[in-house]
Amino acid sequence: MKLKVTVDGKTYEVDVEVAEDPHPAPAAYMTQPAPVRVPAAGAPPVPPAPSPEDGGKVCRSPISGIVVKISAQPGQQIQPGDILIVLEAMKMETNITAPVAGKVAAIKVNVGDNVQSGQVVVECE
Q1: Contact 125, 57 (CB under 8 A)
Q2: Does 45 have pLDDT greater than 60?
Q3: 22: which of 5, 64, 83, 110 lies 20 to 30 Å off by Cα?
Q4: What fold is seen in the domain 58-124?
Q5: Cα separation of 43 and 108, whole Å?
Q6: What is the largest CA-CA distance in the chain?
Q7: Per-residue pLDDT, 21
Q8: What average pLDDT is seen over the chain?
């Protein structure tokens, strides 16, 4: 392949040869993009399944994070899927929803609290 190169106002015509890469990347490092699963738009949140040891009367945090909003109050009637608490973890918000219908007996956290995965955050009656 011939190219014209200008250096300090003087033009040169040069021959350029394309060489093969002497150190190609090993096949083990060649990757393909992973398929991405996208939830259906407008799908309602799925409440967590009640655990057998607590009879579904408590709501546990699914992740570690910081409480940014408490939507429920003690004595409030709730239905499965109602948002009780909002957590923030890694700049993303996660809704903690009611696992069963009933009444909120106690809120075990406050806004700004750090919670751990599995920690009881709400008790229901």
Answers
A1: yes
A2: no
A3: 5
A4: OB fold (Dihydrolipoamide Acetyltransferase, E2P) (2.40.50)
A5: 29
A6: 88
A7: 67
A8: 81
The DSSP line for 47-97 is PPPPPTTTTT-EEE-SS-EEEEEE---TT-EE-TT-EEEEEEETTEEEEEE
Residue 50: how many other CB atoms lie within 10 Å: 16
What gap in Å lies between CA 31 and CA 76, rounded to an integer? 51
- Is 73:106 a contact under the CB 8 Å cutoff? no
Tell me which of 51 and 69 has the higher pLDDT.
Answer: 69
Cα 120 from Cα 109, distance rounded (Å) = 9
Across the range 43-71, mean pLDDT stands at 73
For tokens 């903690």, what's the residue?
96
* pTM recorded for the entire structure: 0.56
